[in-house]
């Protein structure tokens, strides 16, 4: 019986995904053996597929999107294919050491919370992050606070654990397939009175692909404003 489902969206992650998957399987084999890892290859054009398949584990399920459809789309599809009671979303880059996942699983298993999310800005967090990304993240956080009045410090950190039964209805309603998937998920969860906990995290940012640029920032802003307008329309109906 599968109890834990780890969903990993991957786009052009050939540089480190093999090593990270190996570390994840070693960790879960010992600590939480009733698990599956679902890797959604979101239209990668490098050797991501080859690197994933090089990890010899029958716990890994590989799914390939022919074209890039966005992180949100990958996470939603992975969620729909998952068999575990607890679903874990985690980035493919290897920024989050596996051992800390125990804290997120524990928060859900104690049945006090429906969603556990990483908070880079917690005083107990240890992050290795570029100044540019820190500035961008805090600006995005401020914009979200103003637009949505959401009392969450870090919507975008790429580590989250969810009680599948209590969140599947919320996941099905999330429309954003891209950068703002996490934000929309947490807004809808909050509005439906789901219990969310933010946990400190260790994050060692790899900076493999250059990080945030102006084009990405503007795209996120556009998606955020689109989300706000859509939620206002829903509230007015």
Task: Provide a count of the helices.
Answer: 8
- Tell how many strands the DSSP assignment holds: 9
Q: What is the general shape?
A: globular
Structural class by secondary-structure content: alpha/beta
What is the share of helical residues? 40-55%
> Could you state the CATH homologous superfamily?
Spore Coat Polysaccharide Biosynthesis Protein SpsA, Chain A
Shape-level CATH architecture: Alpha-Beta Complex
Strand order of the largest sheet: 3-2-1-4-7-5-8
N-end to C-end Cα span: 43 Å
CATH class: Alpha Beta
Report the mean per-residue pLDDT as an integer: 93
CATH fold category name = Spore Coat Polysaccharide Biosynthesis Protein SpsA, Chain A
Low-confidence stretches: none
- Sheet-strand content, in percent, reads 15-25%
> What composes the largest sheet?
7 strands, mixed
Please tell me how large the radius of gyration is.
Answer: 17 Å
Helix-strand pattern: EHEHEHEHEEHEHHEEH
Number of domains: 1
Tell me what you see in this structure.
The chain is α/β, with parallel strands linked by helices. The chain has one domain (4-236): Spore Coat Polysaccharide Biosynthesis Protein SpsA, Chain A. It is 43% helix and 19% strand. The chain is built from eight helices and nine strands. It has helices at 17-31, 48-53, 71-81, 101-109, 131-148, 164-173, 181-191, 214-236; strands at 4-10, 35-42, 60-65, 86-90, 115-118, 126-128, 159-163, 196-199, 202-204. Helix 1 (17-31) links the parallel strand 1 and strand 2. The radius of gyration is 17 Å and the shape is globular.
């Amino acid at each position: 019986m599968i109890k834990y489902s780890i969903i990993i969206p991957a786009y052009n992650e050939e540089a480190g995904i093999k090593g990270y998957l190996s570390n994840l399987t070693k960790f879960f084999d010992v600590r939480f053996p009733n698990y599956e890892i679902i890797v959604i290859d979101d239209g990668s054009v490098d050797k991501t597929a080859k690197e994933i398949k090089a990890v010899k584990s029958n716990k890994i399920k590989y799914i390939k999107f022919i074209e890039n459809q966005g992180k949100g789309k990958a996470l939603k599809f992975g969620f729909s294919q998952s068999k575990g009671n607890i679903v874990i979303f985690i980035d493919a880059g290897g920024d989050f050491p596996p051992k800390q996942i125990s804290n997120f699983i524990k928060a859900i298993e104690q049945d006090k919370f429906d969603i556990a999310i990483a908070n880079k800005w917690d005083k107990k967090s240890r992050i290795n992050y570029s100044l540019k990304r820190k500035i961008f993240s805090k600006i995005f956080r401020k914009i979200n606070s103003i637009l949505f009045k959401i009392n969450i410090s870090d919507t975008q950190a790429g580590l989250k654990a969810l009680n599948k039964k209590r969140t599947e209805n919320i996941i099905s309603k999330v429309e954003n397939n891209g950068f703002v998937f996490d934000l929309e998920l947490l807004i809808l969860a909050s509005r439906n009175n789901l219990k969310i906990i933010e946990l400190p995290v260790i994050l060692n940012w790899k900076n493999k692909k250059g990080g945030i640029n102006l084009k990405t920032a503007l795209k996120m802003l556009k998606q955020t404003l689109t989300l706000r307008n859509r939620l206002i329309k829903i509230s007015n109906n």
